[in-house]
Specification:
- With 534 residues, this protein is an alpha/beta fold.
- The protein has a single domain (36-155, 228-530), classed as Alkaline Phosphatase, subunit A.
- Helices cover 26% and strands 18% of the residues.
- Strands 5-4-13-1-15-19-2-20 form an 8-stranded mixed sheet, with helices on both faces.
- A hairpin with a 2-residue loop joins strand 11 and strand 12.
- Helix 2 crosses helix 10 and helix 9 crosses helix 10.
Length: 534
């Protein structure tokens, strides 16, 4: 007999909830004030974080301090390693293959997601004051929040008098990628583009705040410059935290803070670049020819960003090693920079007496390949693109400094916050929406060494296929990651299998090894079950 999928089961059991009944049981006993929540989302942050082992020179002391005060997940994964669908997924708690938002469609134009409540909408419905700033959901919708600070801003950029361009200090052909992905430099390297007789628009930094028009981003020196967008968001968040701490605390708050860096362009103040002298940069652990037994380039065009960016970086420097050192330096500098911004927000919580009643959650929308498998970008099914930091400090729940080894994914954030805060009500707006796909991580936060929890023992990730509409989930490419194994299934039927116990860099694809047929079959069945295809 065919098994009922988890999605169908949840849909049936939650049907009555549309009438207003609670999904979670109402707490008994004396009424307690619900905890505040500060959710910090960092863009494009891979495992180059202190304590994650991604790069030995990474410096993120504020994230390390937070991890020492709470629980960190060593194997947390993005469900879709590119910005828009990842955020659309974890802010609604719905898998990309469920909503069919698998690439850069707008979440609010997706029939499933727009009829489901985002995290801030659900918190607001449960009596929370909701505030946000920076890049949270990929597409800005002001009504989702009661108060919003600064819209996502990737600037500043080099400007040639007519358009934003790649930074002139970046060598060609990499610079030709453009003002976002083809640019990296310290902010002290003020761009001078074209001839000076083109006017002031050809000299200096420019930005487009609020996505409307452009304006100069002023830089005279490191001590005399405009704030970077992430600095503005950190200051805004810290100020709001301070203000709310002085107000009547009868109403809890949910604050979302979205930081851009280390998303490209990789710009940060000079002092962060100086922390990582380029001549001392250690290269990512890469094996020559590692892509030869993979199938990414069998199903994607070589002009896809990951392979293309790697190729252009290699062509732009005398050696690949020099190019990677320069790029990694800029990435590490941006990680250190954004870590400092995280520190400002967490410090505002602690110094204003809110630490004992404020949950802090820090994560990223996805990781980033730094040249592994001849790939320089996100949006792959390999470890580097999928793995993300996930740190939770929940007063009275999380033991200090504990680490969870079990694989989890970003889809679990929403139900975890619901559980920790004791929220009630259906997370769907109506029958067109979908119930939450993830599971609460609270049991793992209480006991990080727990042998069992309600969730799966694998994290699911999807990437969109070339020339395939997002409306066909079965036509795309998927991966599952267990504690030991990564299994990848492309829509062509091609497979990759990696044994992390013996191959942490995923150098050896074991999919054709007959000795692993049983493991591969088990993981394939799990992948199909998790995507409702059994």
């Amino acid at each position: 007999m065919r098994r009922i999928s988890r999605r169908r089961f949840l849909g049936m059991t939650m049907g009555a909830a549309l009438g207003g009944s609670a999904v979670l049981a109402r707490p008994t006993g004396a009424r307690r004030r619900k905890p505040n929540v500060v959710m910090i989302v960092i863009d494009d942050l891979n495992d180059y974080v202190t304590g994650m082992g991604g790069h030995p020179q990474a410096k993120a002391p504020h994230l390390a301090k937070l991890a020492a005060q709470g629980v960190s997940f060593r194997r947390a994964y993005s469900n879709n390693p590119v910005c828009a669908p990842s955020r659309g997924s974890f802010f609604t708690g719905i898998y990309p293959h469920t909503s069919k938002l698998i690439h850069f469609g707008k979440w609010f134009e997706n029939d499933v997601l727009i009829n489901s409540k985002t995290i801030p909408e659900y918190f607001r419905e449960n009596g929370y004051r909701t505030l946000g700033t920076g890049k949270l959901l990929h597409n800005y919708r002001p009504h989702v929040w009661e108060e919003f600070g600064h819209r996502a801003n990737y600037g500043p950029f080099a400007y040639d008098g007519k358009a934003f361009v790649g930074h002139p200090s970046v060598p060609e052909p990499f610079q030709s990628i453009g003002h976002v992905d083809g640019s990296f430099a310290p902010t002290s390297d003020v761009p001078r583009v074209g001839k000076t007789d083109q006017g002031p628009g050809a000299v200096g930094w420019y930005e487009n705040p609020g996505w409307k028009g452009i304006k100069p981003w002023q830089y005279t020196s490191e001590g005399d410059r405009d704030l970077l967008p992430d600095e503005r968001c950190a200051e805004w968040a810290a100020e709001r935290i301070t203000t709310m701490a002085k107000q009547d605390q009868a109403k809890p708050f949910f604050l979302g803070v979205g930081f851009i860096r280390p998303h490209t362009p990789l710009y940060a103040p000079r002092r962060f670049f100086d922390m990582f002298p380029v001549e001392d940069i250690k290269l990512p652990v890469i094996r020559a020819g590692d892509a030869s037994d993979t199938h990414y380039q069998d199903v994607f065009s070589p002009e896809r960003k990951g392979p293309r960016h790697f190729k252009l970086l290699k062509e732009s420097y005398p050696t690949l090693e020099e190019g990677l050192r320069t790029y990694v330096q800029a990435y590490l500098a941006c990680v250190a920079f954004v870590d400092e911004q995280v520190g400002k927000v967490v410090d505002a919580i602690d110094r204003n007496g809110l630490r004992d009643n404020t949950i802090v959650l820090v994560t990223s929308d996805h990781g980033y390949n730094m040249g592994e498998k001849d790939y320089l970008f996100k949006n792959s099914l390999w470890e580097e693109s999928g793995r993300v930091p996930l740190i939770v400090r929940a007063p009275g729940v999380t033991p200090a400094g504990a680490v969870v080894e079990r694989p989890v994914s970003l889809i679990d954030i929403y139900p975890t916050l619901v559980d920790l805060c004791g929220l009630q009500g259906d997370t769907r707006k109506n029958a067109k929406g979908a119930p939450l796909d993830g599971y609460s991580l609270k049991p793992l936060l209480i006991d990080p060494q727990a042998d069992h929890w309600d969730g799966p023992d694998a994290a699911l990730t999807v990437i969109k296929a070339d020339q395939r509409p997002s409306e066909q989930p079965e036509a795309h490419h998927y991966s599952v990651r267990t504690r030991r194994w990564r299994y990848i299934l492309y829509n062509s039927g091609a497979e990759e299998l990696y044994d992390h116990d013996h191959d942490p860099y995923e150098w050896s694809n074991l999919a054709r090894d007959p000795r692993h047929e049983k493991v591969k079959a088990t993981l394939r069945a799990q992948l199909l079950f998790m995507t409702d295809r059994t």
